[in-house]
């Protein structure tokens, strides 16, 4: 189904308009909106290098806002890697280099490029250092285990209702029928 804002046939002028909207949304820190318009601009005209720069900024900052235990960013997500891919040092290094080139604030003039660049540098500082990476991997596993554990009686009203039914003889009004 065609989206009313994004017709299927586009011109370079429309792609540039979408790019302009993406930049304005980036200024207001609407990362999801900016990403959406930048993707549309890139899809409409793949030669628009600025669209790639805006996408790199938005995707990096969005990934950096996903916290794990101990208030750390998910450094693998920042470099657009899975933890399994993060075990390959050359792949981590390659992802870092690519993102650092795109996000370098001296070459990327868009707002928040410096923030995204710092996230990439911080991710590299952790994932390129074997001892820091091992500690981060342990915290990541712990965080994933915490998320997978079911909460027992997360709804106190439900727990009270269950106890009430059990101790009240099974009728929901609590009155006993003799």
TrEMBL record:
Source superkingdom: Eukaryota
Span of domain J: 74-140
Pfam family for this entry, one: DnaJ
Protein known as: J domain-containing protein
Taxonomic classification: Eukaryota, Viridiplantae, Streptophyta, Embryophyta, Tracheophyta
């Amino acid at each position: 189904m065609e989206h009313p804002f994004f017709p299927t046939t586009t011109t370079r002028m429309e792609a540039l308009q979408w790019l302009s909207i993406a930049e304005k949304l980036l200024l207001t820190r609407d990362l999801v909106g900016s990403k959406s318009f930048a993707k549309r601009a890139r899809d409409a005209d793949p030669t628009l290098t600025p669209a790639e720069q805006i996408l790199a900024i938005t995707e990096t900052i969005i990934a950096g806002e996903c916290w794990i235990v101990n208030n750390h960013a998910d450094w693998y997500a920042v470099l657009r890697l899975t933890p399994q891919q993060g075990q390959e040092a050359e792949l981590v290094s390659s992802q870092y280099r690519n993102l650092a080139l795109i996000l370098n604030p001296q070459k990327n003039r868009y707002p928040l490029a410096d923030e995204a660049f710092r996230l990439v540098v911080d991710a590299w500082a952790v994932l390129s250092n074997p001892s820091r990476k091992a500690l981060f991997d342990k915290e990541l596993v712990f965080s994933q285990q915490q998320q997978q554990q079911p909460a027992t009686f997360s709804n106190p009203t439900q727990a009270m209702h269950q106890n009430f039914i059990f101790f009240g003889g099974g009728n929901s009004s609590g009155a006993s029928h003799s």
